[in-house]
Design goal:
Blueprint (H helix, E strand, L loop, with lengths): L11 E6 L4 E5 L5 E3 L7 H11 L2 H21 L5 E5 L5 H9 L3 E5 L14 E7 L8 H11 E10 L22 E2 L2 H9 L3 E7 L2 E6 L2
Length: 212
């Protein structure tokens, strides 16, 4: 069986197989992941990402980031420096953030590959519908952990897998760019094995805080 791409444990088992892909579940961190041999090449991924950059996605992204920032303003005084990781927010929403006295840097491996923003530390990081695209999530997890200040906030939007028995009928797995699927227990594992506290994990919203 393949090793888990999140915790590297070899105790995995086949969960589901269809005509295109095989999916495995890790017994340690409970990540469900697609066989690496079925990963799309970067050019195909970029093409799929490009199609999804529509007005609806922009609206959903702003509705994720702006309320989060309003909440953080209540927790921390002064200007905040944030990172929007894996998606690109429109100029109008960026202006709203800047007018409130804050700054949001952006990184997208295809459409905003500015590695300079990955050399700073942040008060908060937003990941809107990107965790499911991580082919080797241990790499991104280590990066995001490094980029956050102590006390910083990590906000993740990804549909949580709640029933393994229903995975075969779960439409979200059918997108070939979706390769990693998380249960609440997966984020509990990450919190227990890192400097993070899991504050909230329901439906498609996960909120974690770096403790030290």
């Amino acid at each position: 069986m393949p090793r888990c791409p999140l915790c590297h444990n070899s105790q995995t088992q086949l969960l589901h197989q269809d005509k295109k892909r095989s999916f495995y579940v890790c017994k340690t961190c409970e990540l469900t992941f697609a066989d690496a041999n079925s990963h799309l090449p970067p050019a195909a991924e970029k093409q799929r990402y490009g199609r999804s950059r529509i007005a609806l996605k922009q609206k959903q992204l702003s509705q994720f980031i702006l309320p989060l920032l309003a909440q953080l303003e209540q927790q921390q005084a002064g200007s905040l420096l944030g990172l929007n990781f894996g998606r690109i927010l429109n100029d109008e929403s960026l202006a709203t953030i800047e007018n409130a006295g804050h700054k949001l840097n952006q990184y997208d491996p295809f459409f905003a590959p500015n590695h300079d923003v990955l050399k700073q530390e942040y008060d908060f990081i937003c990941c809107y519908r990107v965790f499911e695209h991580f082919q080797y999530p241990i790499k991104e997890w280590a990066l995001l952990s490094r980029l956050l200040h102590s006390g910083g906030w990590l906000a993740i939007s990804t549909p949580l897998l709640t029933e393994l028995d229903g995975f075969a009928k779960w439409h979200y797995k059918n997108n070939l760019t979706h390769v990693s699927f998380y249960q609440r227990q997966t984020f509990e594992y990450l919190a227990n094995n890192s400097d993070f506290e899991l504050l909230f994990a329901v439906k498609d919203l996960v909120l974690m805080q770096k403790t030290s």
